[in-house]
Design goal:
The protein is of the alpha/beta class. Helices cover about 35% and strands about 25% of the residues. Strands 6-7-8-3-9-10 form a 6-stranded mixed sheet, sandwiched between helices. A 4-stranded antiparallel sheet has the order 2-1-4-5, covered by helices on one side. A hairpin with a 2-residue loop joins β9 (about 205-210) and β10. It is globular.
């Protein structure tokens, strides 16, 4: 059974031009999906809807066969979905470790030793304890992206949504981030959905979805 499913979705902002039209698609665990399309095609809007950051106008988005509009959106965002933003949205005044622990606190994670758990998440994405205790601005762009991924994992989310996760990285760092995301899907039973313009990402996902004029092609 699909972990995430879109049925008959249509969406527009403030009753203006329709952004998404008649979207029907399902997403499964153990798969990495790439969403592609020209600027303004509706990619980021679709990701925002899947993240529960925008509310559907017509149609349904189902998580584990339950309409996300009928369950607590706060609970959905803080437990089911981990979001990796293009702008990262890390708190620069805090260390990498503190960013992950803060995410755990906000999500209500019940864990006796959150520091140990957060360090384990950071280590999983290639951030050692020394770097974990550095402020975010003391880390490279690739390292900051890893922290962002660790934060998205910190409350055991089943779905990982990533908006241009390699957009600002060089080739080597891009390869490493792609491998982390692939591993999350294939080895850790996650559903990973990536919006990207990168050909490298496209060549590594399990399924490519194209959005053209608001419709999946």
């Amino acid at each position: 059974m699909a972990i995430l499913e879109i049925k008959n979705l249509n969406f527009s902002y403030d009753n203006k031009k329709q952004v998404l039209k008649d979207i029907n698609i399902s997403f499964n665990r153990k798969k990495m999906y790439g969403i592609y399309g020209k600027s303004g095609a509706g990619k980021s809007t679709l990701l925002a809807l899947l993240a529960g950051l925008e509310k559907t106008k017509t149609g349904e988005i189902l998580y584990d066969n339950k309409d996300i509009d009928l369950i607590s959106r706060e609970k959905y965002r803080s437990s089911a979905v981990g979001i990796i933003f293009q702008s990262l949205n890390l708190l620069p005044q805090y260390t990498a470790l503190e960013n992950v622990i803060l995410s755990m606190n906000i999500s209500g994670v019940k864990e006796k030793n959150k520091t140990e758990k957060a360090l384990a998440f950071l280590n999983k994405v290639g951030i050692d304890e020394t770097k974990a205790n550095r402020r975010v601005l003391q880390l490279s762009g690739g390292e900051q992206q890893r922290v962002s991924i660790a934060r998205a994992l910190s409350y055991d989310s089943k779905i990982i949504l990533a908006d241009e996760p390699t957009g600002n990285l060089d080739g080597e760092n891009e390869d490493e981030i792609i491998n982390i995301l692939k591993n999350l899907a294939h080895e850790e039973n996650k559903c990973v959905i990536v919006v990207s313009h990168s050909t490298n990402v496209k060549n590594n996902v399990d399924e490519v979805l194209y959005i053209e004029k608001g419709q999946i092609k």
